Amino acid sequence: MLDLKYFREQHLKMGMEEFVNVVAMDREQIVFFENNPDKITMEILFNLSQKLGIEMTELFQKKPVGLEVDDVYQNLKSQKKEIDNFIETKTEVIRHLPQSEQSYFSKYYNGVRLESAKPKVAILGPSDAGKSTMINSLMGREVLLSQWTPTTSATVYLKHISDKPAWMGVDEVWVFKADSTSQGWEPDRYDDKEYCFNHKLDGGSIDILREYTNRESLKKYPNVDSAVVYLDASILKACDIIDLPGFGTDTQKDTLLAQRAIGKADAVVFLCQSNAFFNKEDDLIFIKTVIQQLGRIDYIKEAPLLSNIFVVASQAKAVGGKSSLSNIYERGYTGIANQLSEEVIKSNFNLSKQDFLTYLKPRFFSYATEEESLRLEFEQSLLNLLEKVFPKQKDFMFQQAVDQFQEQVVGMFKSKEQVYIDTRDNRKETEAQYQRLYEGKESFFKSNQREKERLSQIIDLYIREDRAKIKSWEDQSVTIDRVIRLIEEKRYSQEQAKKLLASNVSDLYYAKLTEVLKDSLSRFKPEAEKFYEKLQTNLEDLSKIERGHSKLPFDIKGSIAGGLASAGVLGGLGAAAATMGNLGGYILLAKGVSILSALGISVGGTATAASFVAAIGGPITIGIALAAGVFFLVKKLFGNWKKDLAELVLKQFQKDKVLESYQRKINDFWNGTQKELDSVISTVEKDYLNHLTELKQTLDMTNPEEIEAKIYLYKELQNFVKAIPRRDQQHVITGAI
Residue 217 belongs to what domain range? Predict the structure, then answer.
């Protein structure tokens, strides 16, 4: 029986007048049928489905009940609140510190803030997969448009109502523009008032989602990038949910937004209609990219590889229930396995393809809103991830971020205290040391410039060498015979090859790009280490004095980390530093763990060169594959079609300058390294000058009481940070794959 009022208000989000106009019925008729659902005939149901452009089965969807999830972050939120309140007691004191000390304090505390955030679960899939329907079911209410025709045209972030900043007032939803054409609105800054007001396009009740995120509104509001919605739903206590536009539409923006979400997500639910499960080649191309680029869960022994990906056959009741699902899973698994490249799997996961596939096979699930048995296994696996795996990971990362904050900030305050102690007890030696630092400024800066020139020459050399390597490889390996072998290895029909072959050839380029950059990065790392050691040695030499053992402290590691973070890119210097025992923790925290985890980089000092380069080629690989697949589909091939298609692929790759696309990625990586180099030297020299200024101000103090007050202040600040409230935690850090 159809609950017409519920369907109109909650499912369609339509008022009475709009509904009257769409279905072309009298208002009195609609009111009658809403009050008397047993009077609705099959003829009326058929007419409604025709007028609304939906299937009749959608009219009878049950009201979503919602997935009940424990409030697993209550303890973590409580810890974060305790620390916030504790730090608030010293806010005025911190505000009166020199700006450099305030920035240092804020930078490391931001790491604590980032790691207190809940994980993000992205719902991905083609435009007709039923993503919004699943989300509405998980929420327990009709939140998103879920008509069969493609509707969502922006990224929608769903957060719990308790996360809503007070300055949003009564609004439930804010709609945002992007940072730029290449960078979307940043969800981690949802509580940054200035950032949100600068990017806000509109705000209001949940009804404005229909205005701004409907496919029909795309031309009217082309600058809409994202919306954030605050709801009282159980599942949102354990995660944020990201609803993405369906890829594979005729709107390139949709595919771009879906790709972008992979980098922001901690887990991905990939939906595909069960009655057409991976029948479309675009679906295979996209899920392959998701698998290759999604970050890994480290430190948690209960989380085997791929625990954070769900491949879901949606609308599962349409295929006849559970008896048909094993065949559907096998078809999907076989199709995905055939698309995964042995070279890429080895590069990204350090596993053979056969071993990797043993982790993939258990990640297939079914889903149907109207039948619990068809979604139970998915919901149980999702609950396990949300209630057991992610909380352990987040707790470990949070505690580590607090450890880093305490260690670095206490160290900074201790060094400041030591300056004043030296000024009090060894003024002459301190003045001599200051003079040595002052007089050595020019030689230090010149040495830095020599190191910059040395590394810049190496970077230029690697750009030329890496570009030449991938060009030479293409000449020797990307041949008609090699492409024909790909067709035969994968046992393609002509129609399959037309759609999928471009993706497979792109994988060859992607694997080679990764291999070339990993090799160059391994050779670059010793040069980067020499650079870091040279910076530190030069400062130590300048700090040495003839008498005594006192040195004026300068936080060179913190300065290097700040320079790398300011560069805003991940290049060779950052990759090298993150794997160095004496710099890794600084770099990882300064870079922002959310960025690194999106690339699969562990924050426990286990980052590898592969982690930094593994995701570089993915976005262009999928772009090439989708575009080329459409092109080849219209071609008529006769006779020796494999040879003809191989020739077509190579000609199209040349026409589209595919090699140049991957060579540009080489340039991007090493130019990013150059940007890191420039930023590190600039930051270190700026910090050096600030250090001299602060030392001079300290030495100008002649009032013993003022010096004692400073010593007391920095001693108290050390004790204050050490006394941050902590709770005993048990971190599960073994068993990571």
Answer: 147-250
